[in-house]
Amino acid sequence: MPEIIHYQFIKAPVSQVFDAARSVDLHTKSMTQSKEKAVGGVTAGLMEEGDTVTWEAVHFGVRQRLTARIVSMQFPYRFVDVMEQGVFHSFTHTHDFIEKEEGTWMVDTFVYQSPLGILGRMADRLFLEKYMTRMLKNRAVVLKNELEKDG
């Protein structure tokens, strides 16, 4: 299973970065390239432990839906969401926040398994892992820019 780890330093307090990362509104803002929007479950505001959200987006020219649930949350240092329904065989996205004097390290760890067995593993190597890495990086930069714009 591919594991993608992305580190982003943000000059903001850990609680602000934590809240930005669980904001449905900021997630939507960070995913404009795929026209992603929340269409079920929590569709605005901050996600809490146990909440689900269903996202609808266009990836590779195909409209898709994915439902994820926040399965654990330790404010303001970690939360974990897992896919309940969607195109992946499975995924777990762990969001860690490391408080530093000058800001916060946001660490995304995304572990997933593609569908379709060997065909899915080939897709991972050819393009999917790069695509998912780029999405995580883009999302992190949007959160960073949003939180640092007034600082």
Q: Can you characterise this structure?
A:
The protein is built from three helices and seven strands; from the N terminus they run E-H-H-E-E-E-E-E-E-H. It is of the alpha+beta class. It has a single domain (3-148), classed as START domain (Alpha-D-Glucose-1,6-Bisphosphate, Chain A, domain 4, 2-Layer Sandwich). Strands 1-7-6-5-4-3-2 form a seven-stranded antiparallel sheet, with helices on one face. A hairpin with a 2-residue loop joins strand 6 (90-100) and strand 7. The chain is globular and about 45 Å long. The protein starts with a strand and ends with a helix.
Short description:
This protein has 151 residues and is of the alpha+beta class. The chain contains three helices and seven strands; from the N terminus they run βααββββββα. Helix content is 31%, strand content 42%.
